[in-house]
Design a protein that fits this description.
Layout: E1 9-10, H1 13-18, E2 34-36, H2 41-54, E3 58-61, E4 78-81, E5 88-92, E6 97-100, H3 106-114, E7 118-119, H4 132-138, H5 145-148, E8 155-161, E9 167-171, H6 183-187, E10 196-203, E11 205-206, E12 212-218, H7 221-233, E13 240-245, H8 246-255, E14 266-272, H9 278-291, E15 294-299, H10 303-314, H11 316-321, E16 325-328, E17 331-332, H12 338-352, E18 358-361, E19 366-373, H13 378-397, H14 413-435
Parallel strand pairs: 2-4, 3-4
Antiparallel strand pairs: 1-2, 5-6, 6-10, 7-11, 8-9, 8-10, 12-14, 12-15, 13-14, 13-18, 16-19, 17-19, 18-19
Helix pairs in contact: 7-9, 7-12, 12-13
Bound molecules: flavin-adenine dinucleotide (FAD).
Length: 453
Amino acid sequence: MELLDADFVTTDPAILETYRYDQAGFCTAGTPLALARPRETAEVARVLRFAHENRIPVVPQGARTGLSGGANAVDGAILLSLERMDRILEVDLDNHTATVQPGVINSVLSRAVAEHGLFYPPDPGSWEMSTIGGNVATNAGGLCCVKYGVTSDFVRELEVVLADGRVLRTGRRTAKGVAGYDLVRLMVGSEGTLGVVTEVTVALRPSAEKPLTALAFFAASRDACTTVSEFLGTGRRPSILEFMDRPTVEAVSAYRDLGFPPGVEAVLVVQSDRGAAAADDLEAFAKVARSCGATEVLVASDPAEGELLIEARRLVGIALEKLGDRLIDDVCVPRSRLAEFVDGVAAIAAEYGVDIPCCGHAGDGNMHPNVVFDGSDPDSVLRGQSAFDAIMALGLRLGGTITGEHGVGMLKRAWLETELGEVGLSVHRAVKRALDPLGILNPGKVVRLPGVD
Ligand SMILES: Cc1cc2nc3c(=O)[nH]c(=O)nc-3n(C[C@H](O)[C@H](O)[C@H](O)COP(=O)(O)OP(=O)(O)OC[C@H]3O[C@@H](n4cnc5c(N)ncnc54)[C@H](O)[C@@H]3O)c2cc1C
């Protein structure tokens, strides 16, 4: 086949193997036909035209840090990695925007604009690895989204290669604009099922002040959750407001002894980057936390001391990794229902006999229960899967959503149908059919087209 001879395409099985999976638990991957690593939009368009003419599935990939199987291979697919399209095309200092290719790593963009006194806020925990294209395709969030918003709040303009190889430019670089449907919002978070993002213009902000940090310890997780809603209810807007439950704190302490007091059931980490007003914000937080039952509140007196306090949150990922196989889940509930969610997850862990450390972006109500299981033990896997389903059901029951930031991918496709309902699902399918009638774009992910995939 003509495309397979192109110099940016390989069919080497050893290379293909290393591109089959993202980082999701409980997700399978098929055997791909080829891997394309284009360097420019024209090559992406060539892949899509070829795939469309020959009805071959295409799986777009960024850095494969995804946690829902969205970038996993499907049988007979062309894996379309955007990793080589990694140039920052422009930082526009007058208009506070940056235009990048999709393979630019989030931290590379963040550091490049910081040199100009500018700030790109969406900061997923994977910011040193994940790509802007992947962040756009999943509408990634992160720690400081509680104050600044998620990826979709920053995307102004996109170049997208459509399923048949046509190139769409949509959105605009201006600060405002309402001409036509908001196709940018439609594409953001569409997980490679509606088009392939080949260029992104994002809005930037002036750099934030160095933050101050506080840590609050609680003897009951319910008290920590009440603190979150009461503190945000005062109208203050922290730049970070993170939660860790006891199993998470225990994992962190086992990894590195940070001298936490005994009997801790939950910890909140809060930052304010409001310069001279930051100390006042943290004092207000400490007052609310104490009134809600915090056993101890530590407030850093300067940013350097704050770095020591935030260490606890930074170590969560690596500390939980040491626990073994795990599914990093992602549910967002109204902040006022956080306590019920955290208690519910603890009850599910007890019911199914699995460990589920729970942490997350409490300020957004976006929690990450980590279902720990033993992949070599079928019974443990089964109990883990049952616990996962129970967490999905709990999130929906509390008025939340099955995913706050990691996306649907393969992992949550069945649950998406439950969340959307009949009418929502039919509208999703109509959109998918309009943009990808042959169902070649990332089939098996997000929405199923009956009769096509
Ligand atoms: C340690 C760790 C911490 C994480 N922390 C966070 C967090 O705080 N917040 C958060 O939101 N996520 C987090 N994630 C999940 C993940 O990093 C994000 O979903 C990220 O946006 C994926 O980017 P990626 O480049 O790795 O994309 P991939 O995993 O390669 O792809 C993700 C999805 O996007 C599609 N895609 C990729 N590139 C394109 C493109 N150019 N055009 C169209 N579709 C495309 C893929 O088909 C797939 O469906 C974390 C993951 C890890 C491993």
